[in-house]
Amino acid sequence: MSRIEELKKQNPNFGINYVDYIHMAVGKSKYTELMVKLFKNKLTEKTNDSDRHSLAMEIVERFGLDFEFIMNTDYLTMLNLWRVLDEVGYQNFNSFKKFMELNEKKLIGNSDLTSYKTFDELNLQISLSSLRQEDNELEKQVVRLYDTDEWLVLKPLTYQSSLKYGAATKWCTASHDNPDYFFRYVKRGVLVYCINKKTGDKVAAFKNIDTSYENETSFWDVKDNRIDSMDADLPFNIIELIKIEFKNKKTNWETLSDEHRLKQTLYLESLKNEKKSYYDELSPVAGNHGEYFPEEISENEMEEVSTARIIPMNATGRQASTTGPIMWAEPTATA
Prior knowledge:
alpha+beta, 3 domains, six-stranded antiparallel beta sheet, 49% helix, elongated, disordered C terminus
């Protein structure tokens, strides 16, 4: 018996049979038969190219699966796949893929896959793994404020350094899909990451120094919940260090060298162009990609881009409202 067949036997509730589920809801066989027929006819109506393409794009966009592979499945299989992945969750699935990648490279400390029970445990291992990987180039893109055997406190100056040191968190400033958030907040304030090297726990701290925004000081846990600084479990000396750093009138972006600021601007543009090209290839209608990425940025706006005035996008890559709440603006908001 293959491992997959054994898993199916061990998890009978995961074997999807729509007839059983419909009968459970309807209760009588003759009506179950009618409902099955009606349900099949409803699915048949959804098998046109437009519906299949739209659903496939959602799966590809959120979970990074291969477009051709998805399009080669029938609509019901595609729908079931979407429902399973949606229940797992976008961030959990992408963390899982990162865990697989690191484990295959033997970069995960605990390689006993049977020992894991939650996604948080995977994220902890991803976090610890990211700290063990040295990158000399990234060292030029952070300001280390404090570094001991237990704690690392730093200011990420570039998007790449934010991805590394914000790995396995739900901070929008460390989102792989939305670099615009990172640029927006390092432009207007001081962003600090506090990392426990032994436990993998992380806390982000932010201080707005841009007078065009409301005065704000905030702390965030790995799940992107806004917390009180006293609940962050940070040593007193680190809290005091952050207070001192928050008095700095220079943002993370301004701390970055001119050379790296230019590189970041070009990098952001390359990401935008790469995304545009990707959806151009997938879209069956030329130019019908407006819902997947922001409008083109004109040459006259390039100077604003270089100062990180980036069009915000939501978690699926669609353009978000620029009038809605911004990261760390309210205690109930999520980054």
